[in-house]
Write a structure and sequence with these properties.
The structure is a homodimer.
Chain A lengths: L11 H29 L3 H12 L4 E3 H8 L3 H13 L3 E5 L7 E5 L1 H21 L6 H22 L1
Antiparallel strand pairs in A: 1-3, 2-3
Helix pairs in contact in A: 1-5, 2-5, 3-4
The structure holds a DNA duplex.
Chain lengths: ~160, ~160
DNA sequence: ACACCTTCGTTCGAATTTGAACAACAGGAG
DNA sequence: CTCCTGTTGTTCAAATTCGAACGAAGGTGT
């Protein structure tokens, strides 16, 4: 009976938030995966690699940096970059300042693939997430999840 | 230049919400996965199977029903239920009202495994998500993501 | 220069996930 | 009853993911 031994379970609001998060996350990923694959032949992960590279100053990032942004394992990234390299969308360069370093660079073909895939993807994100929320819900969600992400980033370090 | 041909890209707030969602989702899954595996030898998916079965009236659900709740593929569920069955945490029964049907049922050992795993899991969810948010952020998040989930559920039908 | 600890990216094997194909059955229209 | 369409759960091959182990190199203190 003591609250010191019994864990604090989630009250209805908390449970709804957690469950909503898990369910929405799974459903969204599933839907976006399907759309991207059918529309562009890319997986969501591959698409995100292209996005992050495209957003980088010179269209290139070091592997570790990219893995951090994607929130994936190093080995997982190695695999996906190899796939994208075979498809000609990404190229590997060696890092000038670090012999160990490998730089993934977006090719022109990669940029084109992203240009082709982005509109449909963004439209679906908008339709399934953004436009479902009010502007206020959206900002609260951005702030809240930003805090959660920050909290989680700290734990790793 | 025409807004009819150009897709509506995400403004800063929208992008922050979407990125926050993706990043928080990945970081959380990653962290919870690690904790559950180390603490109980269960994957997050396996844990969720036990949770949903435990929440069902008689600790049992049909495969399809369970797959819907978990937001996973049927084949994925078949695999995981087989794993849990080997571990003795879940048993398969045949459905009385439908010869094709298979009912996954929580064993006593499964209930015990859940009792053992739940506190640590809930504590971490609380630490990483719930307690990071204000009560208001939490309710807004629950409502918003509930709407998103509902929107996505409709699409399948 | 030396030892020491960390970081980098890859490789490896094992585990997991997926969609398509499948056989068996359910449920209704005629 | 008899088609006909939809559902159910599984199997299968292929793709993906992960963590641990690894060789190689960076960086620091002495």
């Amino acid at each position: 009976m003591s609250p010191l031994n019994e864990p604090r379970w989630l009250d209805p609001d908390e449970a709804a938030a957690w469950r909503g998060f898990v369910v929405a996350s799974n459903l969204l990923n599933r839907r976006l995966e399907r759309q991207l694959k059918e529309d562009s032949g890319l997986s969501h992960q591959q698409y995100e690699i292209l996005v992050h590279l495209s957003a980088a100053p010179d269209g290139s990032l070091r592997m570790t940096e990219l893995a951090d942004k994607l929130v994936t394992s190093k080995s997982g990234l190695t695999y996906q970059v190899t796939q994208l390299e075979r498809a000609g969308l990404v190229a590997r360069r060696s890092c000038p300042s670090d012999v160990r370093g490998v730089i993934a660079e977006l090719t022109e073909q990669g940029r084109e693939a992203l240009r082709q895939a982005a509109p449909g993807h963004v439209a679906l994100v908008r339709e399934l997430l953004i436009d479902v929320l009010t502007r206020e819900q959206l900002t609260v969600l951005a702030e809240g999840l930003g805090a959660v992400s920050a909290r989680l980033r700290l734990e790793d370090a």
